[in-house]
Amino acid sequence: MDKLSDEQIQAELANFPKWSEVGGEIVRTYQFDDFVQSIRFVNEVAEAAEAAQHHPDILIRYNKVTLTLSTHDAGGITKKDFDLARKANASAGALVA
């Protein structure tokens, strides 16, 4: 998978308003009602990541979960990162809806 250009990354980020590019990775922190809901979200992301063979860095702090995505094989951000970000957003929305 090819690394996206800076212009492509910025264009994609326009569709992901709560995500940002930091040091060659895309990052978002989600906030939930409690720890259990955070873990449910992490489990859903883990399932999606395993199915895609694309694994994010995950930081859990009680009711906050930060995902950091980049494609190590490509040396930066690729379409795979935005695909997983989209799935994470959908999972988060389903948990808080």
Question: What is the topology?
Answer:
Blueprint: H1 6-13, E1 20-22, E2 25-31, H2 35-52, E3 57-61, E4 64-69, H3 79-96
Antiparallel strand pairs: 1-2, 2-4, 3-4
Structural description of this entry:
It contains three helices and four strands; from the N terminus they run αββαββα. It has 97 residues and is of the alpha+beta class. The protein has a single domain (6-96), classed as Gyrase A, domain 2 (2-Layer Sandwich), CATH 3.30.1360. It has a four-stranded antiparallel β-sheet with strand order 1-2-4-3. A hairpin with a 2-residue loop joins strand 1 and strand 2. Helix 2 (35-52) runs antiparallel to helix 3 (79-96).
Could you report the average pLDDT, rounded to the nearest whole number?
Answer: 94
- Report the portion of residues in β strands: 15-25%
Shape by Cα distribution: globular
Radius of gyration: 13 Å
- The count of β-strands is 4
Low-confidence stretches: none
Helix content: 40-55%
Oligomer: single chain
Structurally, the number of domains stands at 1
Strand order in the largest sheet: 1-2-4-3
Structural class: alpha+beta
CATH architecture: 2-Layer Sandwich
CATH superfamily: Transcriptional coactivator/pterin dehydratase
Question: Mind summarizing the main beta sheet?
Answer: 4 strands, antiparallel
CATH topology: Gyrase A, domain 2
Count the DSSP helices. Answer: 3
Order of SSEs: HEEHEEH
Q: Tell me, what is the CATH class?
A: Alpha Beta
Measure the end-to-end span.
Answer: 34 Å
